[in-house]
Amino acid sequence: KKSSIEQALEKFKITQFFSETFGEILAHPGKPDPYLFEHEILPSRPSHHRSDFLMVGDTVVDIQFAKNCGIDVAWAEYGYGDIPKDLLNSITFHLHTPMDLVNELNKKTS
Questions:
Q1: 64-73 long-range CB contacts below 8 Å, 24 or more apart?
Q2: Buried b (16+ CB within 10 A) or exposed e, 35-64
Q3: Most exposed: 7, 8, 62, 85, by fewest CB within 10 Å?
Q4: What torsion, rounded to 10 degrees, do the Cα atoms 101, 36, 38, 110 define?
Q5: pLDDT for 58-102, tens place per residue?
Q6: CA 96 to chain centre
Q7: What's the pLDDT score for residue 104?
Q8: Within its chain, how far is the Cα of 57 from the centroid?
């Protein structure tokens, strides 16, 4: 069965931009604790730097997670959460629609 993350990527036709996705693992601390990133994600990509990663999220916890991990964050305004204005300067990309993510990723890869 596909995860909700995989289903969303397929729905918005952006699967090709992701080599792997990670969701919460109950055995590990949840976001915004950087444990998952530090102990699962980074070790799975030893040739990558933090600047190669992008957290796409729609809540304050997602933004805090990215900050705690030292990685870029795209805030999906169209998602579930709302963020305080003082956090807006913490985000790398402000996404108003799913296509905004596609456009930003296309800019990075071209």
A1: 64/31, 64/32, 65/31, 65/32, 65/33, 65/34, 65/37, 67/32, 68/32, 68/33, 68/34, 69/34, 69/37, 69/38, 71/37
A2: ebbeeebbeeeeeeeeeebbbbbbbeebbb
A3: 85
A4: -20
A5: 899 999 999 999 999 999 988 777 888 888 888 999 999 888 988
A6: 15
A7: 87
A8: 5
